[in-house]
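Action item from last week, closing it out:
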Amino acid sequence: MNSPEERFQAIVDAEEKIEPTDWMPEGYRKTLIRQIAQHAHSEVIGMQPEGNWITRAPTLHRKAILMAKVQDEAGHGLYLYSAAETLGVKRDEMQELLHQGKHKYSSIFNYPTLNWADIGAIGWLVDGAAITNQVMLTRCSYGPYSRAMVRICKEESFHQRQGYELLLRLSRGSSEQKEMLQDSVNRWWWPSLMMFGPHDGDSTHSEQSMNWKIKRVSNDDLRQQFVDMTVPQAEYLGVELPDPEIRWNPDRGHYDFGEVDWEEFWRVVKGNGPMNRERVEHKVRAWEDGAWVREAASAYAAKQAMSEVA
């Protein structure tokens, strides 16, 4: 008879889903908890740089769009925390690990939003990179994660179009608006490329994750997809990407581009980015301030359960 490991891998290789009640290797479970929790934390922390501009949006229309987007991101975090809980980890436990710095979130959210164009750049570049990363996760071998990603990707795609539309308006505006747009793109381009993680040879988990079909495409291939998609969009905006090495390579059928500043990447990942401390402190403060809401909800749920028994 085949071992549990062999039966598990056979299910994965057959492109079937692993469900919470199925046997799975402990390494698979831990990898999923780490990845899904990091993804959920990123959605929640990612509300901060955009939420910073809700009260300063230039029109009521833009304010409503931004509020809806931030609300979507809260929902994405909820889906993902729920998916992680099917693996036997508690939501409070994940929160504590984040607050202690033992869980990570996307390094992109440790950069400040300095002007209104940054809201568009986050939609276009950051959400665009996120979609490139996440579409493959709709085919993840773990069922709850895969299903959560279907809705998340649809909403992220809408966010990306919203961001691009905002930048398109600025690109057709005054000289000051065009300068603001260019300044924003200059600051967000390279951090967006960093979202795909280190080079494949330096990525600790990629090979095993691809074998388990948690991940489907390598970091470097995803980064190339993003560049190929984004360069023509930048040309239409009339904005210059801050990389003099970007050029079409007919032999490869892809755009060539420069090297990411990996020293900066690792510095931010390790907690020394421009906003690392502020982001986590804000998150901890919000968690503590909301304790009474969680306690009230738990008490109400317990009361309802008792009434149903009676």
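Closing note: The chain is about 65% helix and 0% strand.
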